[in-house]
Amino acid sequence: TVRFGPNHSLEGAGSFSQMADLVAEMKAGKVAVLLVHGANPVYSLGGAFAQALGKVGYKVSFSAYLDETSAASDLVLPELHPLEQWNDSRPQAGVYALQQPVMQPVFPNARHSGDVLLQVAGKQGTFKNYLRSRWAELHARFGRGQDFETFWMDALQHGGIYREAPAQAVRLGPDAGRLPQLAGAALAAGWRKSGRPVLTVFPSVALHDGRGANKPWLQELPDPVSKITWHAWVEVHPETAARWQLASGDVVLITSSHGSVRAPVWITPGVRPDVLAVPTGQGHNAYGRYARDRSFNAFELLGNEPEAYGGRAFTVGVTVVKTADHRRLATLEGDAREQGRGVIEVLPLAKARGLRPGQHPFAEREVPAYSEQAVEEWAEAQRKKASLGNYAGEHPRWGMAIDLAKCTGCSACVTACYAENNLATVGEELVTRRRQMSWMRIERYYTGGEQGGGRPVGAVVTPMLCQQCGNAPCEPVCPVYAAYHTADGLNGQVYNRCVGTRYCSNNCPYKVRYFNWFNYAEPGGEWESWPDPLNMLLNPDVTVREKGVMEKCTFCVQRIRAAQNRARLEDRGVQDGEITPACAQACPSEAIVFGDLHDRSSRVAALARDPRGYHVLESRNTKPAITYLARVVQGEATEA
Asked: How many CA atoms lie within 13 A of 139 on its CB side?
């Protein structure tokens, strides 16, 4: 379904053509004072803008970072972080978002740019007062008889105003017949005839246009497809790589009519043989400790002349020369294909429609009867022999359901886990040695047979984390009982008991345990992960682990215990949906559901009974608490 109108609000947005006009005026010396806020054009527009900026009389940068534009400015006014300021926005039609500060400013000399402009203009009051006056206009439209203070407090509580956007009529514009020309089809055809490869520049999922490059969480977040962290790359088709005698990690010199960069090669069937692709976001020469002098800036390959449709061309013809250099890619990619292990199950739509409750669509991968019986008899014998104590009572069995038909691989869950559970970022060097600490990862596998020169049919993704196994292989191998089973079914980890043998990691078939090779929390240490003031982001409810300790996903046990304590004080049971782990809270498509599997009426228990449900590596008899719901596709499912 294509919806026109309500998806985005572009009121007040400028065009790239207007930016080009501004650069022309700057070059001509017609701009006396330039104010830059919320942008870094010296980085994203390259040398042409930097040269024009030199002819501006006075440059002022409102920025929270010493980025490239701030470095080239005459005056830098430190801006408040978004979490420290009042503001509002209209992200889409019908939505009026209101933003309020949630913390005091970390740096006392930082000020809201709105307060600065009000002071310069000689106006009385603060930006908050100005914001309230703007919302008084909205009160006149949407107040519905409320007084302003009630309307204001209600908007603060709900984060804004949300109204249905009216439907808009749609018609073809006068340029509809010229779409092929506007899209640059003639130019692309010319590049193919000349034999020059076409390079397309695409925005990074994590870093976007470079604004996220100084955030270590985003730098260490693997790209959903390439799984590369901390640096940029150029994507090359296997046929093209064979013709040019390239291997992954080989460094090539890419030259366009606007500039050149040196980029490591990543070979992937996800691009056409005549196309190269590079992400934006890296290559800063300023900005901060995590962004500076890292990889290359893809914008240097692009021109600054607007296209016929008014935007910037992100596709350009290039020449490629192989160099003698090689760079080890900081990638967390495993096997490119799943190899029939049943990690990601895919169902054709016709088969999914015919499933009935209790019917398992993956019968060939079910646990053998004798193996199931052996495990159950062993467990029963253990119960008879042992004095169970607290374990003998009625307890919940915490579990999770992950719907692969909803999961997009965006990796928001991965970063949310970093924030909630004090996960260390280890940097590019340790990532290349596979010493990352993320408790959750997004696994990507290519699917289908070869078509038209080796291009795969597609790719599938799945979140992988500790399965909180009921028959966990990690627990019996720990010599000091640091890995143990809780009464409510969690695989617990006692950090101050762990001696770092790593036997548990060796015995985990899901490979979701992570070892602290260094003390990432040591102030001033070589591998310090939270230098001041980043230590302020640590969650006080979660232990910061030290060197020599094994760690893994806990299902956000601190949230579980907090909800249980709250329910006990209120003399009631924990309600379904009351506990939400960080990954489920951050998931934009609501693909992750958490709850008590013993509560038959809970949402997670219902999903666990869904005929699409399966357990990863179920034949290992680990009894996972996570149920995956198979991805449903049109047509026939293809093997990975």
From this structure: 17
